[in-house]
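Memo to structure team: turn this sequence into structure tokens by end of day. - J.P.
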Amino acid sequence: MIKIAVIGVGRWGVHLLRNFLEHPQAKVVAVVDSNPERLAAVKQQYNLEHSVLLATEWQAIQQVVGLEAVAIATPASTHYSLITDAISWGYHVLAEKPLTLNPIESWKVCQLAQQRQRQLMVDHTYLFHPAVERGEVVVQAGTLGDLRYGYATRTHLGPVRQDVDVLWDLAIHDIAIFNFWLNQIPISVQAMGKVWLQPKKQPAPLADLVWVILNYPNGFQAYIHLCWLNPDKQRRLGVVGSNGSLIFDEMSLSSPLTLLHGEFEQRDHQFIPINQRQQVLEIAAAEPLQRVCDRFIHCVLTNTPPVVSSGWVGTKLVEILTALEESQNQGGKLVFLKKN
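Reply from structure team:
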């Protein structure tokens, strides 16, 4: 049994708490949150044992004998200090995305984890979604033919963040999926944003709408539309190739992953669509976050790194977001990523 503490039990943290409480090889021994009312609520909701430490101060977890791991679901601005402390105290860490808000800080915590031989995993939940895993197999098998471009839309009416803009809040999901499906990292990026709700936010306004372009080494381009004040809720991503398109539509319960076959045949000066058909791909029934928690427990038990969602994967995504932020601040300027 791995003794684990859950840090932050807000909107996402409660789901981490639930999954670790249900995991046969995990034992939740501490819950930390700055809001005592929230602690009282989760104690009642999940009928926590009296032995579970409930604390408003992060440092209190050092009192727990045998604590081995922590799951951090606090605002991204707190991640660097919390992760640094946790690894320094000897704990394995599962951190909510993004790993940090600064690529240098992300690199530092990865280095620290390596030095201390602790596992650092980032909760990029979509990388554990059965549809995303199946999609990667389809793309890498060459089923779509020559890959041409990708597109994604992630919109809803809230939640509106106070610590980061819509770029930092939402873009990381689709960037992670595109990188995973393509097995590539963008070489350059562009972003343009629009502010309506918080124009006077300090130190800088928080964009409510952002358009993103990712340019990959093979010439593939991905276009992403992000907005948290659009009632038209969409969670849709597609990759287009010469032989068809692969669509991941999270809002479709019956067919979240669809392969649309179709191509052109040229006759004289005309292009005639041929081989058109729709194929709904079967995927396993599983909760992605449960799979994240299970992988983290496995990594702790075996002290082996999580390949798909390691701290280094999280660091690269932070680098991409930082470059996008730079582009956004310069009105959509093309920004090249540094080669590592």
